Structures are given as structure tokens and as C-alpha cells.
Amino acid sequence: MPLRPLILLTTLLHVYIGLRLLPALAGNWTGWLALLVVALVVSAATMPLPFASRRSGARRIGDGWKWIGLLSMGWFSSMFVLTIVRDTGLLIAWGAASISGWGIDWPRWLSKSAGAVPVLATAISMIGFLNARRTANVVHVEVPIRDLPAALDGFTIAQLSDIHVGPTIRRGYIQRIVDAVNRLGADMVAITGDLVDGTVTELRDHIAPLQGLRAKHGTFVVTGNHEYYAGAHAWIDELRRLGLRVLLNEHVVLQTRSVKGAQTDEEVLESALVVAGVTDYTAVHFDAAHASDPQLALDGAPPMVHTRVLLAHQPRSAPAAAEAGFQLQLSGHTHGGQFFPWNLFVPLQQPFTAGLHRLQKMWVYTSRGTGYWGPPKRIGAPSEITLLRLVTES
Hints:
The protein is 42% helix and 16% strand. By secondary structure, it is of the alpha/beta class. The strands form two sheets. It has a six-stranded mixed sheet, with helices on one face. The radius of gyration is 25 Å and the shape is elongated.
């Protein structure tokens, strides 16, 4: 959305909140009234700043102002939703009173409900901030795979997704994630897209701790839509420079059994794992050569290697992945909804919002994300570092 219409829209929504709340507070909440006026003005003025800084030719905006703008965005979201809830509740109460003839002390209810909105919005935003800024907890998930070779039983994958390194997620945040992953001792690390929100020049130093990720078979990355917003080709080069393997509609074969200990070539192949990765579902809109293709990602894969895992940023890659013959797809993108009411819109675009689901013969695991996008705020959708363990289906 162009910046000027966005500024106009958000300003009008702030005006709506003010018109609905401020008159009701004028009588008994005079001190709080002035504070709320200032908060609404600051929110309306700073919310566009993180978006304005991304425009080509725009004057550089300091990270401090971006922080304020993103905090305002989270607070405004709760203010707007709670104002709508208040108006809906008052309308229902008015209708019920009109029908039943109940007497309601309207000035008292208007004042108290108006005062409750900023108090609740601020409390929710503070809780959401703490949830977003803490280091993600480790979520343990067992994935039952039919006919899983014995050598792959217990194979572990540490999944990171949607970290969104940018104005509020910096080097220290990333280092804490790397340290947590390394403590897991996973067989491989998978990063399923939306790693960055900015250019390589801006974020190179902050992304650098990822080169310290340790896993037996290495770290594999696929692109998300935000990589394409930020310059995917430059980021692919930078991630490869850090020693991460970026999979662009291609695969690698991981050998989990010692070749010396195998009796036949068949044993070697059966104990191997195909790990494939596709470009983001929408990548074709940015580069026709990056059209996402799960089938192409398997091109040349040994037919004797039956266990196949796909890294795909968006869950909606799953139907094509299932048709291509994968047993497991690891995705992100949804953030689990991150906070209300945005969680209500995710199912309109994606087949899965979070967790482990079955699609035909394939499992799909959708991470709620290891960081966050936009406002530093998570409510009801905690961030996660996922440790997936392949087990034999009983």
C-alpha cells in the first residue's frame, strides 16, 4: 500500500478512537485524558516511520524512531480492537435495555468502559512485548514416518523460521538463538525463510552469528517472501559466505550411516536422507527463474532414498510437495497468527497455521516463528525453536 494513503487511513482510525473515548473521559478522568491525547498523537505520528524508511530515496530514520513506531503499531492495534469491542458491547447493551426496559447508568458505563480500553491495551501490549523479546522456547515434536530406515530413527532437525532480523531484532537476539540451538546437538538445522527485513549492508553484522550454528550435517536455508523484499540475490550470496547451504529448488543427500560399515550400496542409500528446499511460493513475482517447484527440487535424487524432507517457507506449498512424494514438509510464514485479530486471517491464505498436520501421506509442520514481524508483540502464539525427531510410524 502506498505510504500516503496508509498515513491517511491510520490517522483517521486514530481520530475514530479519540472521538469514541475522549468525550467519555472528560468528566472523571481529566488527568488521564491529557495522557491519552498525547499517546494517540505520538502513535499516529510515529506508526508510518518504519515504512517510510524503506522507501527508496527516503531520509534515513534512526532505529530509535523505528522502535517507537513499531511499539505504537502494537499498542494501536489493541486500542482499535478494544474500541470496536467496546462499541459493540455498548450497542448490544443499548438494544437489550430498549427491549427489556432496563435502566442503565449510561454516563457511568461510558466513562468506565472508555477508561478500560487504554488500560487493557497497554497491559496487553506490555505482555506481548515480553513474550516477543524473550528467547524462544524449544518445542519438541516427534514425526512418525512410515518405513523409516533404522539408521534414520531418532534423526533430529532444529528448525528456525521467521526471525526477521531488522530494526528491533539485532545481533544479541540472534546470538541467543544460536546458543540455544547449539545446545540441542541436532543432526541438522533448517531455516525456513523470512530471516531478514533489510539489506545486506544494513544487517550483515547482525546476521553474522548464524555462522556459529553447529549441527552434524550442517545448516540449510530456503528463501521466504521477505528475502525478496530485501534483495534475495544479495542475501543468498551473504548466507553462502557465512557457510550456510541455501537450497533453491534443489536437494542434498545426507548420509547418516558410515559407508565403511555398510555391506551394500543399497544399505548406504536406504540409510540416507534427501533434504530439499524450494524458493518462496511467491518468488516468481520477483524473479521468474526462482519459481517455486518441489518436483524440480527432487530432480536427480537417488530413487532408493525413500525418506524425503522439504523445506518450504509457506505451508501452501504442501499440495505440490505431497504430489512430488515428500514425507515431511517444514514451513513457517504464519507466525501462528502472532496476535489477535491477525490470527483470524491466516487460514484465509494458508492451509495450516501452526503445528503438525497431515496432508495425504505427507506431514506438514508449520512453525510459529522464532522471532516476530513488525510490532514486538506476541499474544497466544509464542515463538519457538523447534526440534523435530523422526521416528518409525507404529
